[in-house]
Amino acid sequence: MKRRLIFEGKSRFEKVIFDNDSKLFYFYFEEISLIPTDFWRFFKNNKIEHISKDNTLKYHFQKPEIDLIPFLKEELINENLIEVEISVNNDLILFFSSNKKIEIYITSMAFENWEITINNKQYICLQGGNNIATFN
Question: N or C: which end of the chain has fewer CB within 10 A?
């Protein structure tokens, strides 16, 4: 299987939310919404800047804890999402107008790994990433 481009265009970043109860991030762009259900990495200039698993960690310090929401808002505030790609392993890759990207990885063989809605078409990475379900 080859990589599959599921979006190409310009979709302006709107907001990102972290839900403390579910421990999930919710990303919103013009006409696009994304819920990564587990692990993702944020890259800038081909360098890993942050990993989602670090959000809210304090390590050995009481403060400050790692809070990815302000970081993501600052990094994405003037960005356009220009491409969304599904890799050969069904990881999801978001490319931005500058040299930034988010890679969402398959981390479970039992649960859905991510879901993205683009212009009312929904893509869901099913168990183990073996299949992508689409709904119109």
Answer: C
CA–CA distance, 86 with 8 (Å, rounded to integer): 12
H or E element at residue 68: helix 68-76
- Cis bond leading into 36, ω under 30°? no
Q: How far apart are CA 62 and CA 88, in angstroms?
A: 41
Q: What is the pTM of this model?
A: 0.91
Distance of CA 54 to the CA centre of its chain: 15
Query: What is the per-residue pLDDT across 72-131, written as a single tens digit (0 to 9) for each?
Result: 999 999 999 999 999 988 999 999 999 999 999 988 777 788 999 999 999 999 876 678
Q: How far apart are CA 116 and CA 8, in angstroms?
A: 14
CA distances from 32 to 13, 115, 124 (A): 9, 11, 14
Closest by CA to 122, choosing from 38, 31, 42, is 31
- Six-digit token pair at 75? 């990094």
